[in-house]
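Review box. Two proteins, two foldings.
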Amino acid sequence: MARRTALSTPGTGKPERIATVLEHEIRSGVLGFGDRLQSENELVQRFSVSRNTIRKGLEELSSRGLITTKVGIGSFVTFDGMPVDDAVGWSRALANAGANADTRTLRLEVMQDAELAARLGVESPFF
């Protein structure tokens, strides 16, 4: 009888299944906010897949808002267990959680786009 693992679940690709396993570890608290995930090489050995498959799984976790990856440094958990209310926005959610959130205007300029004005149904082409 074949041994069933998290990666042998039918109907999904290996990167998605790897992301799901790691997501479970993050959401259950096994991996906490700021923790560094295992290196790509360690994950390759753990899941017995190619490095490319691991990278795709990590990209999936990143798209789910659970990790960030810094080239040459590693992947780190960015999920803190508190869902962000999209109606409130990230800055307000961070401030409500006690974090220092700063917003700065780096550049402000007027642009002209007649095509955009036409698509929006406005008279002025300046934005």
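Next protein.
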Amino acid sequence: MAAKTEAVSNEEAAKPEPVPFTVGFNRGQSEGLVYGSLLLGILFVVIGLVGGIPLLAVAGLAPLGIAYWHYPMIEKSRPQLGANEDGLYVERIGFIDWAAIRMTDVKRTSVRNMELVRLDVLLTRPLENAVFKAQTFPVWKKFMMRNWKRTPREHGRELIAINLHTLSADPDEILSRIRAFKFV
């Protein structure tokens, strides 16, 4: 009996305390892309307008569009993912209620020498009903890159796939901190 009690207390000691956290994009990976595209786009537009080459000015819109799309990756003080007692926070969704989360799991894929990691969050109900506190954001952000993808599943469930390889924290650490709040 004492061994069983000791095993249970060891399991409780091994479970980490739920500590609120937030994590943002790894800015070092994306600054070159955003600022380089912005510089190239501005250069094309200016040379096209000054040199009387309208086609070059129009071609400059493509790199400007790339910089606009990827801008959230360099935003300061903008968390992409987090957790606290209210729920799981996902940028541009808000807080997803812990009771609405059926499963969390990390999936890894390798493409050549890059490892792509994502967090799969399976919901027990549609996302609109699972959100505890919805986040409001400006309309212009609707056309920018998101760090997550939403996929409908059977029986009214939804899967939210969140890219972790673009974030500035270890994917396994993120999963363990999420599971400290709700182990699923």
